[in-house]
Specification:
globular; 12 helices; about 30% helix; about 20% strand; about 375 residues
Length: about 375
């Protein structure tokens, strides 16, 4: 197992010293490790902000919560740290099949930071965990470039991580990706679902496609229908491989622009990242017991990949149960401020749509 550098350090690995066997004989290549870590230092530093304390060759990264210099002042009164962990799942198998790892690193960051911001937190830093059968520097660099790009999109620092070379655990070509994000929110500004009330408006932010959930079903469709990833099918407008590897959208800057735009009034009642379980399950997670949500599914047009999967054997009911169906993130806001929130989201580069409303009920979501 190798410890990826934390703010400029190096991978460390123990070499078994015997008269006959070496660490390389067991399947762990220290030289490949060293080559790998030499290539990722600049990627990590490209994500650093003024609050990262650079310590070369350190065993852990350091990040200042407050920063006194006037230009970067970020002093908190009631700070609460927020943490989450997630992975890419079996999407990485399709990336391996196509030999294209350029997007899954963005997915890894997105799946974490999109969860983290639902409670109003600002992402601070990110850590990754990569486990492989054997380190292939070119593939790993492609993954790390994606992780660094995801961190830049999320305005957080890639503080470090771990790379484990485990030939006894993973088959050749296998890669496991997991990530961990830490953020901060002022306690009085935390977004709590108990603020949701009847009359609130539900705003949906479009997804780029499947994002990073439901890929066991996606792979089953591809396998059972003998579909070709390199083929451009009617209605997709691109190859199937490009459609299924499209990276997850990162909503951090758009959501932060709304939260920072209303420093006194708390216009956002709740937020949900639409992942596994689709709109119903994820919106239900943020509803109080005396409220329900009605979603009008004809208010937006899902990306073509969803119609393609449905055409190839997945029922409409199952599609909405498993996938985001074109809505990757939801904000529940006070009706009086809905138009203002929409304008801020548009200025931040999103295409927001009012997709429903909060009604009196029992904590359920109705799709119409």
């Amino acid at each position: 197992m190798a410890n990826q550098n934390l703010v400029g350090g190096q991978i460390l690995a123990r070499k078994t010293k015997t008269s006959q066997l070496t660490y390389k004989d067991s399947g762990v290549d220290i030289e490949a490790n060293a080559q790998w870590v030499r290539r990722i230092g600049s990627m990590m530093k490209s994500t650093f902000g003024p609050r990262v304390i650079s310590r070369d060759n350190a065993f852990a990264g350091m990040f200042r919560l407050d920063f006194d210099e006037q230009l970067f002042r970020r002093n908190y009164r009631q700070p609460v740290l927020v943490g989450c962990a997630d992975g890419v799942g079996s999407k990485v198998l399709l990336a391996a099949e196509m030999g294209d790892f350029s997007t899954v690193g963005i997915d890894l960051v997105a799946m974490n930071v999109n969860d983290l911001i639902t409670c109003g937190a600002e992402p601070l830093f990110f850590l990754d965990y990569l486990a492989v059968h054997a380190i292939k520097p070119d593939e790993m660099v492609s993954i790390m470039e994606g992780i660094a790009e995801g961190c830049r999109q999320a305005s957080c620092s890639l503080l470090g991580g771990e790379t484990a070379e485990l030939p006894a655990v993973y088959e050749p070509g296998m890669i496991e990706l997991a990530g961990f994000s830490v953020g901060v929110v002022e306690l009085p500004r935390a977004v709590e679902p108990d603020r949701v009330e009847v009359g609130d408006v539900i705003i949906g932010l479009s997804s780029s496609g499947i994002h990073s959930n439901g890929y066991s079903l996606v792979r089953k469709v591809i396998e059972s229908k003998r579909l070709k990833l390199e083929r451009e099918y009617d209605g997709l407008g691109e190859t199937l491989g490009a459609a299924v590897l499209r990276p997850t959208r990162i909503y951090v800057n758009a959501v932060q622009s709304v939260l920072r735009g209303y420093k006194r009034k708390r216009v956002v009642s709740a937020m949900a990242h639409i992942t596994g379980g689709g709109l119903e399950e994820n919106i239900e997670r943020v509803l109080p017991k005396n409220c329900s949500a009605t979603i009008q599914t004809k208010t937006w047009t899902p990306p073509p990949i969803f119609a393609f999967l449905q055409k190839h054997g997945v029922s409409k009911k199952e599609m909405y149960k498993v996938f985001n169906m074109g809505i990757g993130y939801v904000l529940i806001v006070r009706k009086a401020f809905a138009e203002g929130v929409m304008r801020r989201l548009k200025r931040a580069g999103e295409s927001p749509t009012i997709i429903g409303k909060i009604t009196k009920g029992r904590g359920k979501v109705s799709l119409r």
